[in-house]
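Q: My collaborator sent me two sequences in one message, no labels, and asked for predicted structures for both. Can we handle them in order? The first one she listed is below.
A: Yes, handling them in the order given. First sequence, followed by its structure tokens:
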Amino acid sequence: MTQATGPVPTLLSLLGLGLLWTVAAAGLDDPDVLPGPMAVWQVIVTEAARGVLWEHLLATLGRVVAAFTLAMGLGSILGVLLGQSHLLDRWLFPWVSVFLNLPALVVIVLCYLWIGLNEVAAIAAVAINKTAMVAVTLREGVRSLDHRLSEMAQVQRMSWPQRMRHVLFPQLWPFVATAMRNGLAVIWKIVLVVEFLGRSNGVGFQIHLYFQLFDTVTVLAYSLSFVAVMLVIEYAFLQPWEIRARAWQARTN
């Protein structure tokens, strides 16, 4: 069963990373190439005080949530259908494989060309990239279902909602948790690329702006700020949820 990393090891590990960063920055002695943690922290505080940091963080987070919700919804439905129907799997899985291996940059550029430089294109590009990955994960989850539990539910004359709640969903939860974690980890990185190429706000837009100005410290400030947001989501929500999901699977094995 997956176990969450405790707060003390997590903090010590991050402090160790910060110490390594400090030593590397001091040894290089070139803030234009690798500024130290304190220099980056000062920029984060300044941008947050101005309100600019929060504006761009929220813009990126909104796109991540929208694309993640869309990819999880469509991918889960498609994955369940492919896992339950051999006919659909035979004819549609090659399509899924194509989208699974299609480079994210190609999808982003095509969406911008076809739809325009707008929010619909940005969110669609990210969701299309990750829907196939979610579908493959859920497809394998459906194929691994324990049919003995389904037969027992039929013997007990459980209603369809009861079967979904007590038989199907608990078995699929670990796969859903895996799809959520992997999907979120990749989606926010693709969102930054989408913003880098064609949006007027967001963390990716700010990285593009300060990249043009060769401002390494501000690029790091915005990048690490959003990394911090994703770490909070990971440790506060995804890890506890995944452990509860896998606990059921452990009890049934």
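Q: And the one she listed second?
A: Here it is, processed independently of the first:
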Amino acid sequence: MPQAIRSICILRLSAIGDVCHAVSAVQAIQRAHPQAKITWVIGKVEAMLLADLPGVELVVFDKKQGKAAFKALKAKFKGQQFDVLLHMQVALRANLVARMIPAKRKIGFDKSRSKELHSLFINDRIAKQESPHVLEGFQHFARAIGAECGEPSWQMPVTEQHQQQARALLPEGKVFVISPAASKAERNWLPERYAALADHASDQGFQVVITGGPTALEQELAAAICQHAQSELLNLVGKTDLKTLLCVLQQAQLVLAPDTGPAHMAVTVGTPVIGLYAHSNPARTGPYLFQQYVVEVYHSNLLAQKGKTAAQLPWGTRVKGADLMAQIDVDEVIAMFNRVVKEQGITNHE
């Protein structure tokens, strides 16, 4: 009989959407190995969302500290050796972090997804997958150590206090959240088009809420949406921490977002998401449980730029262009909004 796994280290530093995908895999591992101590090396912002994740010790790697962050990690793990490291990130910084983590078995991605010297920092690999969603890639790490992964589920670490804070911020009635900003401006839809959706939702009896972080880009985009809208919107941009935002998304009936972390946060709490995609393949990075509700211009642009379909190109090939999101039509998104409301049976919130 193989020896029981007693200690597991997860390495996934970023980003918000990706760590949300990883949570379901980690919790599948916990079910398979209830006796194992699980440590997760994670980025500073991402740790704010996942703080107090049941049964998981979070070790924060703050990239802004530079060399000091690597030294702190090495000191933290001195004298330890994990039974297994699940190295879930191929970026060079993450590969260098993996050097600081002592483990007998270091499992990384298959050769087709290995880059930035990833292969030098592992001694085992997950099985190759054909066209996987990012979440399914993480599930393969769980399977590599004997966990069963079916339909993903999440137990996100929020408290009743976070829920109360969200309730205090939100208006009465059914709530439509627009989380308009991605990490790169080119992935954002146009403010006047977000406003058109807001007005349509308002006409359908929804209270419309805009969410986001405190960055200048997010504040400016939210202000522009409010300026273009004919209806009254509640602007919560910069007014919630990540856990309260998660509860806002949970208490909403529907979310509209481009390729951004809050879209995946909403999935973890079961709220339907309309995803807007142009640059990356939504089959790889879309809102996992609601991929049927994506409105995308990725495939047409891929064909225009590369002369090939997604099936004929390396999985995850991206398309380039600052104005691609402008190709997403308002009427198309309104039609999807109406479809989701009907299919999900969204009526007045009780």
